[in-house]
Structures are given as C-alpha cells and as structure tokens.
Amino acid sequence: TQLLEQSPQFLSIQEGENLTVYCNSSSVFSSLQWYRQEPGEGPVLLVTVVTGGEVKKLKRLTFQFGDARKDSSLHITAAQPGDTGLYLCAGPVPNTGNQFYFGTGTSLTVIP
Amino acid sequence: GAGVSQSPSNKVTEKGKDVELRCDPISGHTALYWYRQSLGQGLEFLIYFQGNSAPDKSGLPSDRFSAERTGGSVSTLTIQRTQQEDSAVYLCASSSVGGPDTQYFGPGTRLTVL
Q: Residues 6 or more apart from A3 whose CB is under 8 A from it?
C-alpha cells in the first residue's frame, strides 16, 4: 500500500508547455516535501510545505499543499529541458518522528 | 567535501557474496538515513541514525541487512549473502537535526547482484 500516490507516473511534454503533477494520500501529513532527482544523482530538495492551503513559488515552479494536508501539487510553467527529472514527494511518517515516506515519483521529460 | 559522498559508485557482485557500502555525511550533521531505490521506484526507508541514540532499524528488509555509524560520522551499510532482489541504488542522506528537516543526499551506490 502506497502512502503517497503520485500521478502521472510518466510525463513527456514539449518545451514551453505547462504541467501539473500530483501527490495524494489518505493520511494527514504535518508537512510535505518535493524533491527533484536527475539520473545518477541523489534527490535534491525543492521545497517544504507545512501549512494547509499554503502556496509556495520557486521561479517557474508553484507548489500547493491541500487544505486538509493530505495532498500536494507541483505546477511548472513554461517547462524547459532543464526541468527534466524524477519529481518525488515525501512526508514524515506519522508517529515516527524521523522516518520519511517517499512517493513513487513522476518522471518528467521536457523535449526541446 | 561539501556534500554527502558515497562509495563505491557502482558495485557488481555475485549472488551469495557480502557487500559493504560507505557513506560520508556532511560534517556536523547528526542525522543519517539510508534508503533503497529500485528501478523506477521511489525511495524505501532502511535505517536512521541520530547522534548517539539507538538507530531506527525498522526499515531493514531482512536480517541480512545491517548498518553501523562510527564516531557519529561515517556509516557503512552491509548486505550479507546478497540476492538478486537486492539490486538497487542505495542512497544515503544526512541532515543537521533529523526529523522534518532538509535531507542532503549523496549520489548513491548502484548495486547489481548477478
């Protein structure tokens, strides 16, 4: 059973297009993180959202945390080839204090 | 170095052999995580070290897996009697305080068990 479901699993778009990827759960999270992982590298943290309804912007990336803190979305405006990578959401496992649960990721390819 | 380093970057071994994977965290980081990432999958939590506290080993998939952290710094993940299903990328991450804090990941060790 996946605690964090990400969709779509794969996404291939043309440069300049907009896209949204989703991270959903039936559980409430105190916070959610988004990472980007490039081939041969470890994930790199993009953002942490902690408040229900929170919206954070990082240049062309917009992150939203659902009001009920069960879901999050990442919207990319005018995608560029440099955005290509595996996008992972992650959240602290309830009642552990230190474990993180990662979603299966969305693999994004931006075609020049 | 400034970041988390892992060695080796690639390891090919035969079924039944033991392997050791090394992680050098960022200096001063008290928390250290090990994860496993199978092809096209997300990260699977394995083990967590925080300072001098007893490690959280709840994610280790079997008793063939063990890890230690010497002197609160370098960590070694050992897999005994490797199986083909152990093939994956093993990632190490460190953070300054643990918990919901920024984790800095190493590049991983790609393990292939033939």
A: A25, A27, A91, A93, A101
Mutate to test the interface with A, among B43, B53, B102, B109 (most CBs of A within 10 A): B43
pLDDT category at B100 given cuts 50, 70, 90 is low
Nearest by CB to A102, which of B4, B43, B100?
B43
Judge: A42–B106 Cβ closer than 8 Å, yes or no: yes
A33-90 confidence digits (pLDDT tens)? 999 999 889 999 999 999 999 999 999 999 999 999 999 999 999 999 999 999 999 9
Q: Could you write out the DSSP letters of every residue in chain A? A: --SSEEE-SEEEEETT--EEEEEE-SS--S-EEEEEE-TTS--EEEEEE-STT-EEEETTEEEEE-TTSSEEEEEESS--GGG-EEEEEEEEPTTTSS-EEE---EEEEEE-
Q: Are A39 and A96 in contact (CB under 8 A)?
A: no
Would you state the pLDDT for residue B47?
93
